[in-house]
Design a protein that fits this description.
The chain has a single domain, classed as Alpha-Beta Barrel (TIM Barrel). Helix 2 links the parallel strand 4 and strand 5. By secondary structure, the chain is an alpha/beta fold. Helix 1 packs parallel to helix 3 and helix 5 runs parallel beside helix 6. Helices cover 34% and strands 17% of the residues. The structure holds zinc ion. The site of zinc ion (ZN) has 5 residues, from strand 5.
Length: 242
């Protein structure tokens, strides 16, 4: 019988100290805690793969996949990634997949009008990170909940963000992350039609090779989780039969 590999995809937003005035505190993980979590992953045998690696495994085109694969993702493109997360990942041989809001490259998180505004990576910074090995995916142009807007607008958000990232990075992204994890059957079909090969939602669980590549699950890492709690969550999800 084939080994049943489960893929946890971790979701982070800001790896930074909490700032005064923040409402969605759940989007922050402290740099110290992040480093402990990454050490724990490596010590427990987790190895970074790419979405392309996963699709190859899923389609039976890859002979090998690590026994404990992981994909570590960062939404929205905050500059704190470059300061606090990437050096930690790089030093441990871990990869990163960042999702960029193409209409706010070098801007701020204007879609979160009630939150303190944070700098987002600019085009030059994105290119430098890509040269160092960071992978990028699209996260729409303006960060709307795609299943709640007209399909024509959703199609436009999916297409134009892919085109813009291709202009900036020199390659069209294969992966999309649904803003607010908001998606539907229609939105998944539109993502496929826009040229992506996979798209990520929330859901708090791992994916198996039977999971729809346009509905890959992610586990949002909560600020309060210790490294042991993260590992415990991943252990329970590996055991789950589905
Ligand atoms: Zn987002």
């Amino acid at each position: 019988m084939r080994r049943r590999v489960k893929l946890p995809i971790l979701m982070y937003h800001k790896v930074d100290e909490l700032r005064p005035g923040v409402r969605r505190v759940g989007n922050y993980v402290s740099p110290e805690r992040f480093e402990q979590q990454m050490d724990a992953l490596v010590e427990s045998g987790y190895r970074s793969i790419t979405v392309a690696d996963w699709l190859a495994y899923r389609d039976g085109r890859a002979a090998h996949i690590p026994e404990r694969p992981v994909i570590i993702t960062f939404d929205d493109g905050y500059t704190c990634f470059a300061r606090n997360a990437w050096p930690v990942l790089r030093a441990r041989g871990l990869g990163a997949l960042m999702f960029i809001v193409s209409g706010q490259i070098g801007g701020t998180n204007v879609w979160d009008a009630d939150e303190p505004q944070e700098r987002l990576l600019d085009a030059e910074q994105l290119c430098a990170l890509q040269d160092e090995g960071v992978a990028f995916g699209a996260h729409s142009v303006t960060h709307p909940p795609l299943a709640r807007i007209a399909p024509d607008r959703a199609r436009d958000e999916l297409r134009r963000s892919r085109e813009r990232l291709e202009q900036v990075l020199g390659r069209a992204p294969d992966v999309f992350a649904y803003p607010y994890s908001n998606q539907s059957r229609t939105v998944r079909a539109l993502a496929r039609e826009a040229g992506y090969r996979a798209a990520l939602r929330g859901g708090g669980r791992t994916s198996s090779r039977r999971t729809n590549p346009f509905g890959l699950y992610r586990i949002k890492v909560e600020p309060g989780w210790t490294a042991e709690e993260l590992l415990g969550k991943l252990r329970r999800e590996r055991m789950r039969i589905f």
